[in-house]
Amino acid sequence: MQVNLLEEEDAFDPSKEIGKSHIKEGEPDDPEEIILFIREYDEEIRFGTLGNFSVIKGRAKSKKTFFLTMIAAAALKNGCLDKIKSRGLENKEHIFFDTEQSRNDVKKVRNRVLSLTGDVSKMSFYCLRPYTPKERVEIIDYVLKTASNIGLVIIDGARDLLSDINSQEQGTELVSKYMKWTELYNIHIATVIHENKTDGSARGAIGTELQNKAELVVSVRKNADDFNTSSVVPEYSRGKDFKEFEFEIGNSGIPQVK
Known about the structure:
By secondary structure, the chain is of the alpha/beta class. It is 31% helix and 29% strand.
């Protein structure tokens, strides 16, 4: 259920919002809507819930976007794709924002998802590369505001939504946007951030903020001995960790779990 927490940011009135934020005695728990899982034998391990966001991080060219295509495909199938499973998305629409790649490369991502699912009619793809960071945020905000019945939103990647990756103020503002979007529209956002080469932590102030607020952080790591294989490694989770697993890019350019 969508809740109008704030109509407009510049019209914020705390006297009107205090009642919505106050948790009253005896108030029942809201059902946890887990939409994405990692399958391990007969167990389903939480990967993403509505009202939260997850972070996929990794070094440049570690194949983070290929992993995102698998997540996107699982959401569209509303079922199982190798180890990734979705549920409760049969009537949902999904959105894929790419902030970095060219229009032609975003078309290739769309085609990969199509190859995995056979149908991408319920997922909209946007190439935001030509715009400034502020304009990209405004476009995402507008699309989310005017769309309906959204389930999964992919933002690849977060760094291009701000002008200074090391600005604490910008990082805090952007992560606040993520938290507002997920709560306001009852969606799950899967977002990407690059890792530092030295210590493997997410880059910049925005990386720290995203890691602190995300329900799940995973790292995608390229296999040093096989260029076409990468590992998905859980790092931080509010629930149970799944076991590290590998996926590979086949001759057709389509990712699959090994």
